[in-house]
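Priority: low. Protein: MFS transporter. Input follows.
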Amino acid sequence: MTVTPTRSDQHRALGLSTFAFTLCFAVWTIFSIIGIRISEDLGLSDTQLGLLMATPILTGSISRLFLGIWTDRYGGRWVFGILMLTTAACVYLLTFASTYPMLLVGALGVGLAGGAFIVGVAYTAAWFEPSRQGTALGIFGAGNVGSAVTNFGAPFLLVAFGWEKTAQIYAVVLAIMGVLFILLAKTDPLAEQRASAGHRPFAEQMAPLRELRVWRFALYYFFVFGAFVALALWLPHYLIGVYGLNIQTAGMIAALYTIPASLFRILGGWLSDRYGARRVMYWTFLASVVCTFLLSYPPTEYVIHGIERDIRFSLEINLMLFVVLIFILGFFMSLGKAAVFKHIPVYYPMHVGAVGGVVGMIGGLGGFVLPLTFGVLNDVTGIWQSSFMLMFVIATAALAWMHFAIRSAERVEWAANEEKTDLPELTSSRTSTHSS
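Result:
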């Protein structure tokens, strides 16, 4: 770093960026609640509802690539502030939409809120030394709890004021935060270094994307973040359909998933600093495979033809067990989200925005593709649990690829008689991730 930040400046930057990201994430997932009312008003199918929920995720995902590059170039203070003001205007304009196509167009603008993630990652990472970046980014990433803010608060606003007023309230709050961020945030310590380096060509900024490692990170993030966003959007609808809950209760139960899937990201950052991010990824995928397998089991009636009579019994996941399983799933996914982004500032310190933007974009695309796919699977199969069946397949594939990559790297090391791994934190149980 060109300038060594004070602890006060570090805490200021982290606090502002985390709070701003929390509000942006709340806006980004707003259709998980208002979409249900819109669906009732317009008589939408599950596929149409899934598309409406997923459309903001598409914009937020794709915009991360460009916003990451702009943040590398111009710094996070202005990019973050202007992004919030622009998004607030789009959310307010959404309330004038009266048809399904108009709502889809409005949802594209709302989705800009999702791009705040990579802006905040690049801005926050610039303030911290490498040994504390994992913890700092874990705290920042806990802004995912914004989805819980929406699941808790939006149902009550929706019932009291309707979906239009709910969206307008969100727009005003986000606009105020955008102004405050520009006024209160400081220019990050890497600004002088970026200015002296000049504007690098686009091809140079994208050069790290030729490495397969970047795309492995992207697959991991497709699950731990993309599936998190998808479930944050889908769970209220799922709970209403499967367990017959009202929208307020469904929103509160969905928050039991989104809160641990957000706040425990802080723990994930600390664990990644302490024990290594790849080890945390193993914990994440193993637990996710088990949880999604159990959640994917549909209510089933069994008949055993006995000697004297038939024996009948049924198996299904009741509401209490469902809540426990999604809490566990959310907990481990939060660890995985922190572990993925632990690596990027280490491997690509001058390309955090570009590489993080691509990884975040792929992960965000999971949040776009999966809710839409959940709706299609519901309409095609008629089985609610088909969404978790799909997640089980993705988690298993990611775990298998990760393990294969580790074993391949180990074979290369053994052949060369070197103690040097694909991921530096595995070099030694006590070696820092920043030693190579």
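The domain at 7-426 is CATH 1.20.1250.20 (Growth Hormone; Chain: A;). Confidence is low (pLDDT under 50) at residues 419-436.
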